């Protein structure tokens, strides 16, 4: 039976979710077929919070990341962990002038090296900066297949990213923004994408106006099903298989999954 994975959310962040609210949202997610989630770190401290949240919740995983907005003040210290599945979110953000570009580039290089040292994929946040981003990655050719989170750039850059072997994170933004890059997708795109909420942000249609949560992956899957002309079951199967391939997360029903939860 197919199930869904939220590959990018911030349910561990108490700035956005009270503890009881997060617990309720996990139950709602399960009821909507979302069996696994990945909590994304955005700073050293936030990543450790994601680690603790994942440690205490079955079928929940975490990443170690420092967001570009924190590039001027960071502390990189990360070791392998049973439920650590990626380095991210990391990248470049040129949208806001106040973010120091030189510091971002230096941080990105350090985080890419960390991903290589730990043999982990990356979850990338790249906004208005793809040329510089791709230029940096040319110096890190041995990076593992990774994800461009919340992709919203041009068709040309989408095609280039796919040709470079990136997976694309599809979230609620695609369901309500008229993005040119998603206008002419073919069914084959299902082989190159994963699903994410970015909760509490980017709530998908038809839940606009409400806080986003992992259960809304089901709405994103439905949108993608209509967009590509494939069944929702096919969307669940392929995006989940893609997520498992990238992040090496086990089947939630397997003994391996239970073992990892106990060891973490």
Characterize the structure shown.
The protein is of the alpha/beta class and 264 residues long. It has one domain (4-263): Metal-dependent hydrolases (TIM Barrel), CATH 3.20.20.140. 38% of the residues lie in helices and 16% in strands. It contains nine helices and eight strands. It has helices spanning 19-31, 44-55, 101-117, 130-137, 155-163, 173-176, 217-228, 232-247, 255-263, and strands spanning 4-9, 34-39, 60-64, 84-93, 122-127, 147-148, 167-170, 193-195. The chain has an eight-stranded parallel sheet with strand order 1-2-3-4-5-6-7-8. Helix 6 links the parallel strand 7 and strand 8 (193-195). Helix 3 runs parallel beside helix 4 and helix 7 (217-228) packs across helix 8. The longest helix is centred in the middle third of the chain and has 17 residues, at 101-117. It is globular, with a radius of gyration of 17 Å. The two termini are 27 Å apart. The relative contact order is 0.16. Mean pLDDT is 94; it is low at 255-264.
């Amino acid at each position: 039976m197919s199930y869904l994975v939220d590959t990018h959310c911030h349910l561990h962040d108490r700035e956005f979710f009270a503890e009881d609210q997060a617990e309720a949202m996990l139950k709602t997610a399960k009821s909507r077929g979302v069996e696994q989630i990945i909590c994304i770190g955005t700073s050293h401290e936030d990543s450790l919070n994601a680690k603790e949240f994942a440690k205490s919740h079955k079928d929940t995983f975490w990443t170690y990341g420092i967001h570009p907005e924190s590039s001027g003040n960071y502390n990189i210290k990360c070791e392998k962990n049973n439920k650590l599945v990626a380095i991210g979110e990391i990248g470049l953000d040129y949208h806001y002038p106040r973010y120091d570009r030189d510091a971002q580039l230096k941080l990105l290089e350090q985080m890419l090296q960390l991903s290589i040292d730990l043999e982990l994929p990356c979850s990338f946040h790249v906004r208005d900066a793809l040329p510089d981003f791709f230029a940096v990655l040319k110096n890190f050719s041995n990076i593992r297949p990774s994800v461009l989170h919340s992709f919203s750039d041009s068709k040309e850059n989408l095609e280039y990213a796919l040709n470079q072997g990136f997976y694309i994170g599809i979230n609620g933004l695609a369901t309500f923004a008229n993005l040119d890059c998603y206008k002419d997708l073919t069914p084959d795109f299902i082989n190159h994408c994963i699903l994410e909420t970015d909760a509490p942000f980017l709530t998908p249609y038809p839940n606009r106006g409400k806080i986003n949560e992992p259960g809304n992956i089901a709405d994103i899957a439905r949108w993608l099903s209509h967009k590509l002309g494939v069944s929702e079951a096919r969307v669940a199967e392929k995006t989940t298989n893609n997520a498992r391939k990238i992040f090496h997360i086990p089947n939630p029903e397997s003994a391996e999954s239970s073992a990892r939860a106990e060891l973490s």
